Amino acid sequence: MDWTNVAAHWEANAENWTIYSRAGYDIYRDALNTPAFLELLPPVAGLKGLDLGCGEGTNTRAVAKLGATMTGLDIAPTFLRYARETEAQDPLGIAYVEGNGETIDFPDATFDFVTAFMSMMDMANQRQVLKGVHRVLKPGGFLQFSILHPCFVPPSRKNIRDETGEAVAVQISDYFDEADGKVERWTFSSIPKEEAATLKPFSIPRFHRTLTTWVSMIVEAGLTIQAFGEPMASEEVARAEPVVADTRVAPIFLHIRAGKN
Ligand SMILES: C[S@@+](CC[C@H](N)C(=O)[O-])C[C@H]1O[C@@H](n2cnc3c(N)ncnc32)[C@H](O)[C@@H]1O
Fold it and tell me: Which of 7, 24, 82, 95 could form a disulfide linkage to 56, CB 3.0–4.6 angstroms apart?
């Protein structure tokens, strides 16, 4: 599957994804993943950043609020329309551009840093994406990105629960299956069942890579790994948002920061 096909899937997802994530149904993102990502992020105040696969812009805005001057790039026009509307209502100086992360159209050494929240495993040619990121980073700059954890959320992950419903183990399979554009269909699990039944599930082409492949692609692009993060919900967060409690058994997300020398 190539990027045009990927773009069509995301454009079809964009409306409901924006409505439901902004209504608070992307609990993994809001309660766990984004806070952990921002904790790992070095200080960005005064820096120029690119957010790759920015979607409707909530995470781009979170980084802009830390004092960075942000550009958000995405392949799906509907996401960008929502992102620009929010920027117009409550400006944070963010520019949004439509584009493909595989052919980033900015001059060399434009950005101090690049972020990519949960978008790189959705891009068809990650090798190319990482090379482009290296090119647009200034020397000394960094990329920080989050992906579905390649080891614990390969194409198939199932929670094993005890009689009380608590996740006690995780069953995974197909770790070595790097099939391109395997389409996964789901909606945010916290949307009430009756409402979810009325929605067309998201359809997400995924480009799973093993951890070895990710590390090789990063190194090949000329980047040096600086930090890993594997967010785990605290007991308090898991109590408040039980849906994320399974990250206490094994992580769902992997955060990677890598620098350009
Ligand atoms: C899971 S969503 C994450 C959106 C946003 N970063 C967030 O955290 O809410 C993945 C995003 O990647 C974008 N995307 C997928 N392939 C892309 C590509 N080749 N170039 C740019 N964006 C892409 C999709 O349109 C979508 O907005």
Answer: 82
Going from the Cα of 74 to the center of ligand 1, the distance in angstroms, rounded, reads: 6
pLDDT in tens, 29-47: 999 999 999 999 999 999 9
The model scores a pTM over 0.85: yes
Residue 135 makes CB contacts below 8 A (sequence gap 6+) with 104, 108, 109
Question: Could you identify the residue written with the tokens 């979810």?
Answer: 196
Give the residue, by CA position, lying nearest to ligand 1 atom 14.
Answer: 53
Residue 127 has pLDDT above 90, yes or no: yes
The domain tally of the chain equals: 1
The CATH number covering residue 136 comes to 3.40.50.150
Query: Does ligand 1 come within 6 angstroms of the Cβ of 70?
Result: no
Please state the atom number of ligand 1 nearest to the C-alpha of residue 124. Answer: 19
Q: Which of 119, 153, 187, 204 to mutate to test the pocket of ligand 1 (most atoms within 8 A of CB)?
A: 119
Task: Specify burial of residue 197 (Cβ count, 10 A radius: 0-12, 13-18, 19+).
Answer: exposed
> Is the distance from the beta carbon of residue 246 to the nearest atom of ligand 1 less than 6 Å?
no
pLDDT tens-digit readout, 218-233: 999 999 999 999 999 9
